[in-house]
From TrEMBL:
InterPro entries reported in the protein's UniProt record: MFS_trans_sf (IPR036259), POT_fam (IPR000109), PTR2_symporter_CS (IPR018456)
Pfam families: PTR2
Catalytic activity: glycylglycyl-L-proline(out) + H(+)(out) = glycylglycyl-L-proline(in) + H(+)(in); L-alanyl-L-aspartate(out) + 2 H(+)(out) = L-alanyl-L-aspartate(in) + 2 H(+)(in); carnosine(out) + H(+)(out) = carnosine(in) + H(+)(in); glycyl-sarcosine(out) + H(+)(out) = glycyl-sarcosine(in) + H(+)(in)
Family listed: Belongs to the major facilitator superfamily. Proton-dependent oligopeptide transporter (POT/PTR) (TC 2.A.17) family.
Keyword Protein biosynthesis appears in the UniProt entry: no
Topology within the bilayer: Multi-pass membrane protein
Gene3D superfamilies given in the database record: MFS general substrate transporter like domains
Name of this chain's protein: Solute carrier family 15 member 1
Cell compartment(s), UniProt: Apical cell membrane; Cell membrane; Membrane
Organism: Lates calcarifer (Barramundi)
Protein task: Electrogenic proton-coupled amino-acid transporter that transports oligopeptides of 2 to 4 amino acids with a preference for dipeptides. Transports neutral and monovalently charged peptides with a proton to peptide stoichiometry of 1:1 or 2:1. Primarily responsible for the absorption of dietary di- and tripeptides from the small intestinal lumen. Mediates transepithelial transport of muramyl and N-formylated bacterial dipeptides contributing to recognition of pathogenic bacteria by the mucosal immune system.
């Protein structure tokens, strides 16, 4: 092993953790703006955007198997990391290029003319990123673990904690930075939201990650790959199953483990190693449920945040920025757990090496949306633009008294026709122009209705509503939260109207016929609330972030180290990939339950997930109780020693009796393995 030590730690791990920091910056930075890119750049709807997003995340956690097989069986971890990092960086560059709208904007109107080009290039980019990020992920963690000697167990545990901190440091920074970059405007012919920059910076960070990793090259301990181990494993398992089936009759004595049926053909060391791996993989079965809940931060929880109030006083938080709570909590909780809680638990004599905590989903639902018409209905709004109340009689309905400057929402069957309304009563048919969902990104959707006999121009610093004809209305414009001042103009005369906005509301502003330009027009505009502003504060999401992150710290950091320490030497990356595979399954569950099953009530979906997690938690606790810790290095050393001794004996006294003895010894050694794994945790 590498002997260059700093404070008892190999110097090489410095390059590995910096590489991980940059790589995670690249991954999470790109992921933070991905759904918005699908929605606003590629113009996909919510469902398609969410489905492709979760499919991509799931793919990123499926490809570790590929990377691990290549690393453990063929190229070794070092070369696999280098080659796949190049693939990864190319993918990130492809994403950045796919987001340059000018490439296909031949008419220079600000929108791409060939969406197919952008879709194809971004899908190719995402595929390469999934291959790269997933492929190197199990290799980097295991490669870091490889840098420690047998006597450095404590340092290796600390390494995995620091490794996790770097993951979250990178993710925290990028989740803050890339949404800011995305919000900038850039372009050659026309200025648009700068997704290319938001993808370009992660691409640059991936190149930095690769360069840092290469700089450390001379300092790493590089374990040699040990042949096509996965093929051997599959063949060995296949043979054991076949052999067991062939000897299913009662006349054959039972063996301790079904894998022992491979003994006739396969090396006992390989069989023992497969047993170690299978034992751990069996323990992983309930784990995807944790990731099912965990990975909804990026979708369901962010969508929930769009319906909440993000005003934290001096700070206004955007819905997608709430995700940064997770890395912030990780950066705080990991040091507290490592330096305080775990040592305290150890002092109390409790064994707490394998933890699995469930989190509670605090589902806060809000009724800020009005009742919208069903598909067989239409919604009408009656606006009285006059200065006196009027009585309106609609066919088949009682007479309505409509006060001055008021709106009356009215649901009716599509086919009813209304005629002969008073000139000052304006009729809106909502199917064509009313907003029926919360405005995006916590913005407010605003429109104006002109009740004057002259055309009025309305504008603010952020939006231009254009010239509104008499008794007509403008399109909706998006206004951010806070105070907005609208300038109302007719010819050379103007006046100003100011009001405050919260998050996620929709208003129709009526300009009265009595408005006099040149004076204060504050009293001559009436605001009618179509959709209430978000009333539940985003801070209420913090407890749910806290619980899920506390669960993550106890479960995921230890799980990473557990997967390394319990894996045989030739399958370290493979077991890391098995661990990551549970994340992929978790995301597929989200895809199936949340996206395809479409449970109508969101609270019912949350309750379903939380109940499943409680059940899984109980099952996992029982499984973990019966799990016995092993020391793969020691077991492998015992086997190797025995094999060497047998070889020596074979050389000096070849003969049938000796061969039998070797066979017996081998079986004894195998029994020792079984005994060694009987001790409970
Ligand atoms: N806080 C998220 C995080 O740290 N994620 C890690 C680990 C994921 C895992 N399944 O181990 C990451 O590497 O992104």
């Amino acid at each position: 092993l590498n002997e260059k030590l700093v404070c008892g730690y190999p110097l090489s791990i410095f390059f590995i953790v910096v590489n991980e920091f940059c790589e995670r910056f690249s991954y999470y930075g790109m992921r933070a703006v991905l759904v918005l890119y699908f929605k606003y750049f590629l113009r996909w709807d919510d469902d398609l955007a969410t489905s492709i997003y979760h499919t991509f995340v799931a793919l990123c956690y499926l490809t570790p198997i590929l990377g691990a097989i290549v690393a453990d069986s063929w190229l070794g971890k070092f070369k696999t990391i280098i080659y796949l990092s190049i693939v990864y960086a190319v993918g990130q560059v492809a994403m950045a290029v796919s987001a340059i709208h000018d490439i296909t904007d031949s008419d220079r109107d600000g929108t791409p003319d060939s969406m197919t080009f952008h879709i194809v290039l971004s899908m190719v980019g995402l595929f390469l990123i999934a291959l790269g990020t997933g492929g190197i992920k199990p290799c980097v963690a295991a490669f870091g673990g490889d840098q420690f000697g047998e006597h450095q167990d404590r340092q290796r545990r600390t390494f995995f904690s620091v490794f996790y901190l770097c993951i979250n440091g990178g993710s925290l920074l990028s989740t803050i930075i890339t949404p800011v970059l995305r919000a900038q405007e850039c372009g050659i012919y026309s200025k648009q939201k700068c997704y290319s920059l938001a993808f370009g910076v992660p691409a640059a960070l991936m190149v930095v990650a690769l360069v840092v990793f290469i700089i450390g090259s001379g300092m790493y301990y590089k374990a040699e790959p040990q042949g096509n181990i996965m093929l051997d494993v599959c063949k060995c398992i296949g043979f054991a199953i076949k052999n067991r089936y062939r000897h299913r009759s009662k006349q054959y004595p039972k063996r301790q483990h079904w894998m022992d049926w491979a003994e006739e053909k396969y090396d006992k060391l390989l069989i023992a190693q497969i047993k170690m791996v299978l034992k751990v993989l069996f323990l992983y079965i309930p784990l995807p449920m944790f990731w099912t809940l965990f990975d909804q931060k990026g979708s369901r929880w962010t969508l929930q945040a769009t319906t909440m109030d993000g005003n934290f006083g001096a700070l206004v938080i955007q819905p997608d920025q709430m995700q940064t709570v997770n890395p912030i909590l990780i950066l705080t909780l990991v040091p507290i757990m490592d330096s305080l809680i775990y040592p305290l638990i150890k002092k109390c004599g409790l064994n707490f090496t394998s933890n699995f905590y469930f989190s509670f989903i605090l589902s806060n639902f809000q009724k800020t949306l009005p009742t919208f018409p069903s598909t067989s209905q239409s919604q009408l709004k009656l606006l009285n633009m006059g200065s006196n109340s009027v009585t309106v009689k609609l066919p088949g309905n009682d007479a309505l008294i409509l006060p001055a400057a008021q709106v009356y929402p009215f649901i009716n069957n599509c086919n009813t026709k209304f005629t002969n309304l008073l000139p000052e009563v304006i009729l809106f048919k909502s199917a064509t122009n009313d907003l029926t969902s919360k405005p995006q990104e916590g913005n407010n959707a605003i429109r104006f209705v002109n009740g004057m006999k002259t055309a009025v121009n309305v504008s603010t610093a952020a939006a231009d509503f254009g010239l509104i004809e008499p008794f007509y209305y403008s399109n909706y414009s998006q206004i951010k939260n806070g105070k907005a001042t609208f300038t109302l103009r007719s010819g050379s005369q103007s006046c100003e109207y100011s009001t405050n906005f919260g998050f996620g509301s929709s208003y129709t502003f009526f300009i009265h016929s009595t408005l006099v330009f040149g004076s204060n027009c504050q009293d001559s505009v009436t605001a009618v609330e179509d959709i209430k502003p978000n009333s539940v504060h985003m801070a209420l999401q913090i407890p749910q972030y806290f619980f899920i992150t506390a669960g993550e710290v106890m479960f995921s950091v230890t799980g990473l180290e557990f997967s390394y320490s319990q894996a045989p030497s030739n399958m370290k990356a493979v077991l890391q990939a098995g661990w990551l595979f549970t994340v992929a399954i978790g995301n597929f569950i989200v895809l199936i339950v949340a996206e395809l099953a479409k449970i109508p009530k969101q609270w019912a979906e949350y309750v379903l997930f939380a109940s499943l997690l409680v059940a899984v938690c109980v099952i996992f606790s029982i499984m973990a109780y019966f799990y016995t810790y092993i020391d793969p290095t020691e077991i492998e050393a015992q086997f190797k020693k025995k094999i060497n001794e047998d070889d020596e004996d074979d050389k000096s006294k070849p003969g049938k009796a000796e061969v039998e003895m070797v066979k017996r010894d081998s079986i004894k050694c195998h029994d020792e393995y079984d005994k060694a794994t009987q001790t409970k945790m």
